[in-house]
Amino acid sequence: MDVDEVVLNFTPGTLMILNVVLAMIMFGIALDVAPRDFKQVAKHPRPFLVAIAAQLVVLPAVTFGLTFLLPIGPSMALGLILVACCPPGNISQVLTHRAGGNVALSVSMTAVGNLLYLLVMPLSLAFWGSLHPTASVLLRDVALDPWEMLLQIFLIIGLPFLVGLSLRAQAHTFAQRVQPVVKWFSLIALLGFIVGALAGNWSVFVTYLGLIVLVVAVHDAVSLAIGYSTAVVGRLGTPERKAMTFEVGIRNAGLGLGLVFAFFGGLGGMAIVAGWWGVWDLIAGLVLASLWARHTKRRSGTSKGDPTGRSLPTAAPADLAGGTRTAGVE
Question: Half-sphere exposure of residue 119, counting CA atoms within 13 Å on the CB side?
Fold first, then answer.
């Protein structure tokens, strides 16, 4: 069985459920975004610019090279490129807080970054995918229209994000109350959908289990490393490095899975990569954040608290710029 010829089982109703869950995730992110998040980026653009360069340029470029080193076919290669072109996942803030990183920077990068990805993602996928000697054939087969994908991404990301921003602005107290519920419910629903999709195509997944686990684990580790190393090169402080690590390493693979179903007919290699990515990056992220938190606690003798995201105090403007926390615990 050639994974490039496998098509996963799904229905229009299943795709609709996935799109609703993804929209809920973006709605939950927007409920946690304040105008000051955008203002802080404008006041202290350097960390954000480093993060954007890592996500929009370095990660896709390194992923493109990685597809030639890993033992994969065209569909899995395009799946890795697709994930690399996806926006950051909302769990990045939770992991950043768990690791003792700069949560304010993480939230700001996610907020502004997702708006940029509305336009950049389809163009980035079309660019890097068309350069690949074998994966480009898949793009031509589906006659990928970047503008049609842009509309799809706007409906899944942009519209619920704008609705969430509007609700927070008009009903701040209500938004704060429902945000944790929406955030965790949508995350659990997404994981449930991915697990269900894998279970529904279990024979395909088992056939390529070893390869998929290896490929996704390597790609995820590289993505996390890119986040940390670019922060080091950008001379950001330790808390900012932690935020960058998860902001670059945690991708919205669920959105990628939805696009595989919408534009690539559930193509096996792409769908399995995106689906397993959504599970593995959470596992790897939690392990890394826990190890980082334990290391920080051992060095400082204090705990960073429970991973509840924005419920704890966020960093001050100087922290966001990486100007006051470069020394101390790591």
Answer: 3
